[in-house]
Write a structure and sequence with these properties.
Helix content is 46%, strand content 20%. The protein contains 13 helices and 13 strands. It is elongated and about 90 Å long.
Length: 519
Amino acid sequence: MYTCEKLQIMENYLGLGVGIIAIITAFLAKSAFFFKTSLSIAICCLIVALTSGFEHDPSLGMICFTLIGMIGLGYFISLLSEKIRMVASYFVGFLALIPIGAKATYQGFEVDWTFEVAAFAIIGSLIPLLAKIKDYFAVRWFGANGTEFNSAVSLVYLGIFVFAASFFVSTFGVILLATGYFASNLALRSNSGLQLSILLFAVAWIFFSLNSLEGISDSLLKGNLWMGILAGLGSLWACKSIKNVFISLFIPVLILGVLVSFGFINENFGGTPTLLGAIIGSSLALALIEQPEPGKPFQGMLLPLILIGFTNPVDSLFQPEKLKVETLLDNGNEPENQTAKKKDVMDIPAIALTDGDAGAWKSVAANSKLEFEVGPPASRTAGAIKEFTTEVQLDKAGVIRNLQVEMKSGSLTTFNDIRDESVLSDEFIQSEKYPKITYTSKKIEKVGEDYRITGDLEFVGAKVEVTVNLRFVSKVNKDGSEILVFVGKSAIDRTKHNMTSDSKIGDLVDITFEVALAR
């Protein structure tokens, strides 16, 4: 049985293994046997990495065994005589019938392993045969170029069945289709078929990444994805034109690495979306590019697998630094359970305060956080103020009578050192000239379970009236002391604080906070 922790390790290390094995495979292109052996191992690692999309399920072992079994059977058939290969190759997908009756959940999609689900692996293994039949008639009746027509028909079939697979079985359907198609072409010893197989696995990886990586779901709206696609397309032509194996892979990877690294300067220019775009572009080029030597494996077909292998390490580099704050809220109530859709902190149930809570309370830094987001929906920039203190005065009825917050402007961060230099400079918040940000309540209203607080925010030399919504959500004991926790949110217009309006950066800053208080 697989635990979630083991699946995470597989995703990180086996995914990286795909890239490393793909690099090694490229140097084995002179030997078809060693090339296809190494390539099969890389694809098996990729399949296991993709299975991390399954939730904890007793059927997972059998599912992995079945998918890898198809690759193994295809590899074994490839070692046999041509007569056997020409027949047996199209039956490798039938191994998908083994898990019939299994039930699992893949990236939130319930998979009931029925014959209809298994059919996608079977169809994948039969596509080379279907394309070959059409190829025969096209050559005989219309005088078409057999090789080119075969690839064109295969792409049409793959397009149709990728749509059907993703519609009926989500991402896992595409994985089944890719596995069946790769195994069949491996058995047939078809280099052009293996190229299209890698294209299909790249499609599956993109679907998988869009569902599993943070902040990637809106990447299709960003130019950095399309920059990666065009760079990926060009990289395959570079691989083809340079004869030296090392240089033909090193130069494209170096160029793509530089483009991806631009994300350190501006998250909307490089980063993980650019890498995913390069996977799409380079894999699409496999369908368009002519093999330099048709009888010999083209080392450039490994480029998408190399990029796939480095997706998780690259993504971890561009994940924003997390605030080291120990929340005192229950996990079920935690407002920042980094899902695709961020929860509203004001949805956490409120608690009632009593006369026993009267008095002065001060924030506990280790359990308090103040975060913000700014920018248009497609390119939000997240940040936080790391150093701040909050003082609250409660009356005998447990009602807030006064709220004061003092923040250190130099502790404001967007989790990007290069960007922070600009934000803290005179261009924006002028942290050296105005080292403090303060908020002082003027009017406090109790509205149902919440508080609506109106106060003055002094920020970048301007004092502006700002409304804050606040709710007490927890009362806990920590180290023998009673702790109150409140959450809340607000919004400020940064242009009212001596900053220039900019639609790309965004003018309205959304603020959320979770503050722990001790007497």
